[in-house]
Amino acid sequence: MEQFQIETAQNISISQNTAHLGDRMLAYIIDSFVILAYTILIIWLLVSMDIDFGDMWAAYMVLGLPAFLYYVLLETFMDGKTIGKALMKIRVVKLDGSKPGFSSYFIRWILRIIDVTLTSGGLAVLTILIRGKGQRIGDIAAGTTVISEKVRFGIKDTLLRDLPEDYVPTYPQVTVFKDPEMQTIKELYDQARREGNHQIILSLSEQVKKVAHITTADKPFDFVDKIIKDYSYYTQDL
What are the φ and ψ backbone dihedral angles of 237, each rounded to 5 degrees? Predict the structure, then answer.
């Protein structure tokens, strides 16, 4: 799983985790199963209706559209996810952190013919491994990638941060906060960072500055991160 940095219009740097190739392949298998199951159901339904072949073909062309447009429809209306992606907790995002528009999903869908369908996914896998940032050809053309939303647990998921021995705190004012308050700040910050929610980080930054009476030139992302680390430093040192 690789990381890449995005710089938002608010000058906030966000680290995103690209989806693991295995998760993307499993999502593809699940989606293929869903499409196949839907197609079989439609064929069974049409056969059971005992209609003329010509009418059956016309009906299949209409009822089969959801299967044909599966990826572009679901990613558009499910915030960058399909059923497979949702189950694997991955989704499509723009490289600049913004939400993709229909045109981006459409480009990915059209180029899926080249890097997935015609090559049985081989070209997509090769491109992802070589290109980095989790991009197949469709992603490169659309300016998108696929990120993981899985929560990884470790020491950073507790109140304390794992600090280097030579860490030097910047803001002693953080001691005005209580443990529950800092835990809330940390949880909101970590969630916003995972989801690329820049507005929450901006709001956290402004609120912390107001409460702790801090004036700083640090970017909101860096500032809130330092606040959490400084609080860990002072509480560990008590």
Answer: -85, -10
